[in-house]
Amino acid sequence: MLKQKFLVQFGSNMSLRILGLISGIVVARVAGPEVLGTIAYATAYVGIFGFITGLFGTGNIKLISEGKDIGDSLATYSRLQIIAIIIFLFTVLIWFAVQKYILNYQFESSIHEQVIIITLFAMVITKLIQFNDSTFTGQLKQAKANLPKIVRGILFQLGKIVVVLLGFNAVGLVGWNLLTGIIVLPIAINLFRSLPYGKYRKELAKNHLKIAIPISLIVILNSLIGYSDRLILQHYTNSTELGYFAAAFSLGGMILILGNTMGTVFFPLFSRYIKENNWENLNVKINKFQTFIASFILPFICLLGIIAEPLLLAVLGDKYQNSITPFIFLIYASYITIVGMPYGNILSGMGKFYMNFWLKLAKFIFYIISVIYFVSTEYLGLGAIGLAINLLAVNVFHNILVILASIRTGEVNFDYRVLLTYLVIFIMVLTSYLVVPFLKDITMYWWVLFPPIFLIIVFGILFSVNLITKKQVYELIEIVNPKLTYKYIKKEMNE
Questions:
Q1: Predicted local confidence at residue 197, as pLDDT
Q2: How far is CA 382 from CA 33, 245, 309, 337, 386, in A?
Q3: pLDDT of residue 354
Q4: Distances from the Cα of 74 to the Cα of 65, 141, 257, angstroms
Q5: pLDDT beyond 80 at 230
Q6: Cα 479 to the chain's mean position, in Å?
Q7: What's the whole-number average pLDDT of the chain?
Q8: Do residues 376 and 434 make contact, with C-beta atoms less than 8 angstroms apart?
Q9: Cα gap 277→280, rounded to integer Å
């Protein structure tokens, strides 16, 4: 059922992302980059404190996956998480008040202030909706974990098209986000009631805190790395420039869904394998994943990079010309992230949280130097392009650290045949860049005709040199088999 668990997680996320892509295109074209930038700024402003609510979820997954009593784990986790959400709410409110009324910080506009406050309460509701996620994830029950998110995602993405077409901008869009959270909250509460609820246990709380101490250090760094770059870009430029980056990220960041999916599925699975000292199966899963993304995902990533300019201008319009280069860097940065995802989960599964912290700290130091160098007007001042280059550089640096650490601490084996796949694909990409200028002279619609030709040639070569096998194709078909997935969802929801 692992393939179906992956498909439920990936399929639901990808379906929402595609729906979000469609609605995002409408919002981008109608509202413009300034609105996108305003929302991105508010999300970063609030999200940078999100580490407060991310301290205990990993511990809950780990304890449940290791066989701790689910009811007692949930009761203990619930008390800790509620306290964390309350602290998160008041921390943001206090910081906002200090900035505005004591430090006299001037936000770009009053709209920015309104959007920040509404985004804060929307994020609090989101944290409540996600309350069950770690428990269901620890049980490897992805269908139940995803249900509230799917319902809310559909409501939000469809509704925001209506909101923007009615003439509402940033305030209306984040207001709709808050409203959909309130609507979906009863579904999450009902799922919560379906779980066994035991007693608060001091021993389990101590286990949570033991894990949370290094986790807190990690999630703080993750929040800083994940959100401060947008705040830095806003500081040195404006909401419009941030909007160019946000538009590129909304399109180029889609591949991150695959990485987040595998992280969600791999972490509890790897924790179990490592506890059983079953490195053989663990390596099989990792090498299958690396082969899969290299053979079936990377060709599409490279294709998007080649046709980025005409594709984005056709989708978003000429006013997003400045989003093209960031988009190209972001799609490769996203791919680099998923390559390293399993190795980070190995370290977490081994309980090497402090090692993860030191790696994150090294990443953070590199990130600070990189983002200031590429974005600050005192150095290169590349704006949205610099932020995208920074993300790519940081992801490459962190991958190197994590992979080396997992080799040193675990029993990790590599299937080096995947490097041949990379070599073949990049040769084809370089060849394509030489051919594209001639195609442009033939027809302005070259970018519509080029993709099927490129994919047929790439997959044909990989298949002919046995880098893609019939077995891998059959496994891919099995992953997307709707009947097996339906059976898995039906079984899980009836449990």
A1: 79
A2: 17, 12, 19, 23, 5
A3: 77
A4: 13, 15, 27
A5: yes
A6: 21
A7: 82
A8: no
A9: 9
Q: Determine the Cα angle at 90 with ends 37 and 105, to 5°.
A: 50
The band of 264, judged by pLDDT with boundaries at 50, 70 and 90, is very low
CA 125, 126, 132, 135 dihedral sign is negative
pLDDT digits (tens, 9 = 90+) for 358-413: 888 999 999 999 999 999 988 999 999 999 999 999 999 999 998 888 888 877 77
Residue type, 178: L
Which residue type is seen at 205?
A
387 vs 375: CA distance, rounded Å: 6
pLDDT at 325 over 60: yes
How confident is the model over 136-152, as pLDDT tens digits?
665 556 566 677 888 88
**Banded model confidence at residue 207, pLDDT cuts 50, 70, 90:** confident
Beta-carbon contacts of residue 304 (< 8 Å; ≥ 6 apart): 252, 311, 331
Contacts 24+ apart (CB under 8 A), 478-482: 478/3, 479/3, 479/6, 479/7, 480/7
Count, residues in the chain: 495
Q: How confident is the model at residue 258 (pLDDT cuts 50, 70, 90)?
A: low
Helix ranges (H only) for 376-416 are: 384-409
C-beta of residue 92 within 8 angstroms of C-beta of residue 112: no
Q: Cα(204)–Cα(77) distance, rounded to whole angstroms?
A: 9
Q: Is 137 exposed, middle or buried (CB count within 10 Å of its CB: 0-12, 13-18, 19+)?
A: buried
- At 462 the pLDDT is 92
Which residue bears the tokens 């101590």?
206
Four-residue CA torsion sign, 228, 173, 57, 202 = positive
Q: For the segment 447-469, what is each residue's pLDDT rounded down to a tens digit?
A: 999 999 999 999 999 999 888 88
Neighbours of 293 (CB within 10 A): 21
304, 331 contact by CB (below 8 A): yes
Q: Is 133 helix (H, G, I), strand (E, B) or coil?
A: helix
Give the separation between CA 176 and CA 122, rounded to whole angstroms.
9
Q: What is the DSSP letter of 221?
A: H
Domain boundaries, the chain: 2-493
Separation between Cα atoms, residue 477 and residue 72, nearest integer Å: 40
- What does the alpha-carbon distance between residue 364 and residue 385 come to, in Å, rounded to a whole number? 20
* 3-class secondary-structure state, position 243: helix
Contact predicate 261/137, CB 8 Å: no
**Which residue is listed with tokens 């969802």?**
489
